[in-house]
Amino acid sequence: MKIFEKAPAKINLSLDVLHKRPDGYHEVEMVMTMVDLADRIEMQEMARDTIIISSQAGYIPLDEKNLAFQAARLIKDRYDVKQGVYIHLDKRIPVAAGLAGGSSDAAATLRGLNRLWNLNISNEELQILGAELGSDVPFCVTGGTALATGRGEKLEPISAPPQCWVVLAKPPINVSTSEIYGKLNARGIKQHPSTAGVLSAIRDKQFDRLCDNLGNVLEGVTLDLYPEVRHLKECMQRLGADGVLMSGSGPTVFGLVSKEAKVARIYNGLRGFCKDVYAVRMLT
Ligand SMILES: C[C@@](CO)(OP(=O)(O)O)[C@H](O)COP(=O)(O)OP(=O)(O)OC[C@H]1O[C@@H](n2ccc(N)nc2=O)[C@H](O)[C@@H]1O
Ligand SMILES: Nc1ncnc2c1ncn2[C@@H]1O[C@H](COP(=O)(O)OP(=O)(O)O)[C@@H](O)[C@H]1O
Fold it and tell me: Active site annotated at which positions (predicted)?
């Protein structure tokens, strides 16, 4: 049997760091949501007890370093599954972009193999398994919109943000999440984003208020290290996006846009100097 799963990209509408923890992770407070840009994952049963990964993308690992491989191995080990699986990743989310592409592939693999092998694992259990693979994986298991705390694995689902367009642009650099967290001075954060403001704007479906409250404490670190990200952010603002923010540890910058008429102008303006630009809808 063969099954398919979609693995959408996430953006962080708010990303605050409360403190650095003794285990090296940072205690965060984030509002995360999904956008309509997704990898497609095909999973096919194999009688032979092995995991094989393939992808058209030449720039991701296809061995045990791949997060989908790790998800398949984890579920096989925990549930003592003796069958194998062939997993093909049709990558559309840019890699190491702050969009959780790898985490979403891992989460989609957990969901898919749960179906393929009739394991009847609850979403809560899949999220617990996912946390072993990465901090963003539990959110990607269920998607939607959520307030994430802890190191990102404690989730409280909330209502969807007001519907809008999301323009995403990724400059041609790779950013390491651990390097960006490592360079953040958690004690010296001068201005924390208003997660409460983002939550109330979403609750009241107030698009303008949502745009005014977007904030990410990792943005300053990445913008200082990579001036091209700052340039991209300024361009998106100049082109008229209603709210602009870097997602996660970057380097992707997203712009929220309420009027469809503006989207083409912003998209074309960015495409003039940046290859990786996408105009998508917020997933609601
Ligand atoms: C910054 C965020 C925001 O959503 O996303 P990305 O930029 O990766 O998309 C996440 O917190 C990233 O989550 P994820 O990419 O799953 O991180 P992990 O694999 O768990 O951790 C990678 C490294 O990031 C650091 N890390 C991660 C999460 C956290 N709360 N505190 C940390 O300090 C640690 O150094 C860790 O070794
Ligand atoms: N299935 C996968 N898709 C993308 N990247 C993967 C995958 N498996 C492992 N990786 C590795 O994970 C790292 C982070 O990738 P990704 O999840 O796209 O970034 P981010 O967490 O910034 O959104 C990259 O260095 C990449 O090589």
Answer: 10, 136
- Choosing from 107, 133, 158, the residue where a domain stops is 158
Residue 93 DSSP symbol: S
Nearest by Cα to 214 from 9, 34, 31: 31
Number of domains in the chain: 2
Summarize pLDDT for 102-119 with one digit per residue, the tens.
Answer: 999 999 999 999 999 999
What ipTM goes with this model? 0.98
Separation of alpha carbons 70 and 74, rounded Å: 6
pLDDT in tens, 50-85: 999 999 998 899 999 999 999 999 999 999 999 999
183 is catalytic: no
Domain holding 101, by residue range, is 2-158
Which residues, listed in sequence order, are joined to residue 17 by a DSSP beta bridge? 28
Find out whether 9 is annotated in a ligand binding site.
Answer: no
CA angle 30, 36, 40 (to 5 degrees): 105
Assign residue 177 the CATH number of its domain. 3.30.70.890
Pocket of ligand 1 contains residue 181 by CB under 6 Å: yes
Catalytic residue among 10, 76, 91, 170: 10
